[in-house]
Amino acid sequence: MTRHLTPNIYYDPASVAGKAPPISDETDILIVGAGPAGLAAALTAAGHGLRVTLVDENPVPIETMGEEVPLHFGGRMGAAVSNRNSVLQTLLDARPEIADALEAGVDVRLGTAVWGLFPQQRTTAWIEGSVAGLADDKNAWLLRFKQVIVAAGRRDMGLAFDGWHRPGVMGVSAAQRLATVYDALDCKRAVLVGSDTQALASAHALISKGVQIVAIIEQAGHVSGDPALLGLLVEHGAQVLTGHVVREAGGDAFGVKRITAVAVDTAGRPVCGSLNEIECDTVLLGVAAIPAIELVEAAGCRTSFQAGRGGHVPDTDPVQRTSLPFILVAGDCAGVWSSKSLDDSISRREGRIAAHTALAALGVDRGPNDKAPMPDEPVCDVSVNRAAWVRASTVHAQNEPFVCLCEEVTASEILAQQPPRYLDWTPADTAVQSVMTSSQANGSPNPDVTKRLTRACMGPCQGRRCREQVAALLGIGAGVSVDVIALASFRPPVRPLSLQQVGQIEETPQMHSRWDAWFDMPSQWTPFWLCAGQQTVARRPQDAIRDTNPPHNEG
Which of 158, 157, 159, 163 is nearest to 398 (CA)? Predict the structure, then answer.
């Protein structure tokens, strides 16, 4: 047997070619989220001879909740969340259709998060087909799919004010989740900040769980949400303060004890002598309901700002397809509007449409007979409203609250594009100044440059509490509308993964044999501006990439 080497051919040991990770499982239709839209999609897709997998991250581990993922839980989780079996039973009781899906033959996986979607495209050409990254509380693995329906729901926009770092300041959707799905909300007296229909509906749902809504604070001159819901909250004792924002959430390290509200003028500046102190243990942020698009955004689906759908959402066609036709969206992550919040049949309709579209793509259905529902007309200018909240609450705060709590970045540091304080940066640093100048080259600030300079949006919560605030601040600073400011980009994993979980993902023997080559790059530890054009393998010396064990023929 003779070994023949092919001369003058160089093999790059750092290449990913032929090193795709093993896929642990496969399905035909993957559905992400077991809310009304996801369950409707699963029940519609079942019974056609295909493998249908329904994944929902609830019950979320308490450690993940502590990182404010997927919602802003604000430290108001009751002790019940630590009992996984009890929480799982509560979840099944709250969503009886999960049992229906199981009986219909759907592979239901609860307590399992999807941390990434990896379609085969230019950046992942070495992966065969489309792959999803999944993880439970201990393990992570890969699953191949043909069609995916993302029904990831919504979250709440963060809003910085003095004391918003205290336990007890949380998203109103997170409070509703803890109260109605987990039966584990540690809250008695709450103040609601914001007054759109989504916020009022969530607050009303809390009343039946023993929560008293003592006040509703709205920076605009009037309440924008459903009048009937507002009336019900007022009947239960809620005080309405329009033209106000939270000046400070007072308390101690254990949580909020009170808030101080202040009246603001039309420019968002506080009005002297207008302080109003309210005793409470929780502040519910209901400024805006944000479609949870992180998963589809990181997968490469095209998104845009659509005011009628609540802000940045995936671009979709009338049958729920995104710009990547095998990725579909349904429910609140496809758009949030008032009538959808009041009637979950709209989300269910979207789920059924998406399921029929996926079935048609797989050749077992003629496609949906219905078209996606159209959103309501916005009750206000969404861009102006969000900028007004941030201006009145954050820019005109009496102190300098951290907008990005994870990385401790203030509004002034974001507006000045100031790098982290621990870098000892000075305004005379020409390298940083050049990056700042380039970020303004297209006429509007670049949030990704802001992220890299300041570290805002780079903490454990992955920007869920600050990403919209940063965009609003950049719009205010540049004097442009918020709807033309892109959001800081997301990359997988879109859910926190421990090193132990990552270690569960299998690797091929080829990757094991030359793993060190993946780190043998000039730019690995050197800043890109000092690499002198050697960032890519193609520009490296040939001797550096010669493989000592190239492929060979044997005979």
Answer: 163
On the CB side of 406, CA atoms within 13 Å amount to 21
Q: Strand, helix or coil at 76?
A: coil
Q: How many residues does the chain have?
A: 555
CB 353 within 8 A of CB 300: no
| Sheet of 25-26, strand order | 25-26, 140-145, 130-135, 113-118
| Exposure string for 520-551, b = 16+ CB within 10 A, e = fewer | ebbeeeeeeeeeeebeebeebeeebbeeeeee
Q: What is the pTM of this model?
A: 0.89
Give the C-alpha separation, 373 to 370, whole Å: 9
Span 251-274, average pLDDT: 95
Tokens for 124? 């992942």
243-257 pLDDT per residue, tens: 999 999 999 989 999
- Check if the beta carbon of residue 196 is closer than 8 Å to that of residue 286: yes
Going by C-alpha positions, the residue among 389, 403, 395 that lies closest to residue 160 is 403
Burial grade of 88 (CB within 10 A; 0-12, 13-18, 19 or more): middle
DSSP run (H or E) holding 443: none
pLDDT recorded at residue 547 = 45
Alpha carbon 506 to chain centroid, angstroms: 27
Contact 136/57 with Cβ under 8 angstroms? no
Which tokens go with 503?
């270690």
Confirm if 65 and 181 have CB atoms less than 8 A apart: no
Cβ contacts of 337 within 8 Å, gap of 6 or more: 308, 309, 310, 375, 376, 378
Structure confidence at residue 180 (pLDDT): 94
* 82-91, 96-105, 260-269, 403-412, range with the lowest pLDDT: 82-91
State the pairing for strand pair 402-404/409-410. Answer: antiparallel
User: Cα separation of 534 and 214, whole Å?
Assistant: 61
Helix, strand and coil in the chain, % to nearest 5: 35, 20, 45
What does residue 250 show for φ and ψ, rounded to 5 degrees? -90, 160
* Closest alpha carbon to 332 in 307, 356, 313, 306: 313
Give the Cα separation of 185 and 53 in Å (integer).
Answer: 30
Identify each DSSP E strand in 119-269 by its residue range. Answer: 130-135, 140-145, 147-150, 154-156, 169-171, 189-193, 212-218, 239-242, 244-252, 255-264
Dump the DSSP string for 299-332. HT--EEEEGGGTEEEE---TTSB-SSTTEEE-GG
- Measure the CA–CA gap between 196 and 143, rounded to whole angstroms: 39
| Segment 32-51, tens digit of pLDDT | 999 999 999 999 999 999 99
Contacts of 23 (CB under 8 A, 6+ apart): 128, 131, 142, 143, 144
518 vs 498, residue with greater confidence: 498
